[in-house]
Amino acid sequence: MRLDVISIFPEYLAPLELSLIGKARQDGLLRLEVHNLRDFASDRHRTVDDTPYGGGAGMVMKPEPWALALEALLGRGGAADPEPGAKPVLIVPAPAGEVFTQRIAEELSAQDHLVFACGRYEGIDERVLDWAQEHFTVRPMSLGDYVLNGGEVAVLAMVEAIARLLPGVVGNPESLVEESHQDGLLEYPVYTKPSSWRGADVPETLLSGNHAKIARFRRDQQLLRTAARRPDLLRGLEVSGLNRADLELLRSAGYHVVDGGLQRIDFDPR
Questions:
Q1: First to last CA, the chain
Q2: What does the subunit section of this Swiss-Prot or TrEMBL entry state (predicted)?
Q3: Is 148 known as a binding-site position?
Q4: Rounded to whole angstroms, how far apart are CA atoms 60 and 49?
Q5: Which burial class, exposed, middle or buried, applies to 236 when counting CB atoms under 10 A from its CB (0-12, 13-18, 19+)?
Q6: Is 151 annotated as a binding residue?
Q7: Which among 35, 55, 221, 247 is least buried, having the fewest CB atoms inside 10 angstroms?
């Protein structure tokens, strides 16, 4: 996979040289380059922003440096106008984008080329995104319902979430299966030695050696933790994927199947 990141603060992306992502780059599993947007500015001050039309606070990123930077990346890939099916994906971190999820990370991990455009100030001139539609699959993306100073923090999170799904990046691929959000639920709590620590003991079931009981315990913990912390995930869960034990546990937590979905109510509608 090839990833390109454009930013006016390329040093902000230095953590991508560390840990598993850095090793994946060294091993050739991932081609990742960070580009300075100011290299594509035309004046001696390397200006990339200007005041907004219509007034208002803040500055807006100018369109031409962005277009030149994106064109340069297209040129590296070969034809400036690739076939529609071969378009790189342009990800633009923005509060107004679709929310980035594990499902989207999995989807993007199957792409050959991702480009991340790190906006700053009040954002990028909207005409850049309109122009880019001809050459890229443009996807504005948000980490959540809050505002950051720029796109770099979001890109660090998204690149790590995507790249760790590539074959060979994570040493034990089984660990990817038992994570939060992989099956629509949060991950179960985990424990290690010693079995007793400061008066707190590891749940006896995990020490039993009974793999069936351990699997049931972990499943129950997933369901209960999700119900307590992220009830919105339960509402979107496929009921057909739940077994009788799952449904009985959820019922004890106040969740019942209503109109084909899970709802929290104070009585059993049956």
A1: 51
A2: Homodimer.
A3: yes
A4: 5
A5: exposed
A6: no
A7: 55
Reported in sequence order, the residue ranges of the chain that DSSP labels E, i.e. its strands, are 2-7, 31-36, 49-50, 60-61, 89-99, 113-117, 137-142, 196-197, 200-201, 255-258, 261-264
- Distance, in Å, from the CA atom of 47 to the CA atom of 65, rounded to the nearest integer, reads 9
DSSP E strand stretches across 37-183 = 49-50, 60-61, 89-99, 113-117, 137-142
Angle at 242 between CA 175 and CA 161, to 5 degrees: 30
pLDDT per residue as tens digits for the range 86-140: 799 999 999 999 999 999 999 999 999 999 999 999 999 999 999 999 999 999 9
CB 117 within 8 A of CB 170: no
Is 119 annotated in a binding site? The answer is yes
Q: Which residue, among 25, 50, 161, 15, has the nearest Cα to 99 in the 3D structure?
A: 161
At 88, is the secondary structure helix, strand, or coil?
coil
- Ligand-binding annotation for 147, yes or no, is yes
- Mean pLDDT, the chain, whole residue set: 89
Helices (H) and strands (E) in the chain, counts: 10, 11
For the entire predicted model, the pTM comes to 0.81
| Helices within 148-267 (DSSP H only) | 152-163, 174-177, 204-207, 211-229, 231-235, 244-252
Q: Please tell me whether 261 is known to bind a ligand.
A: no
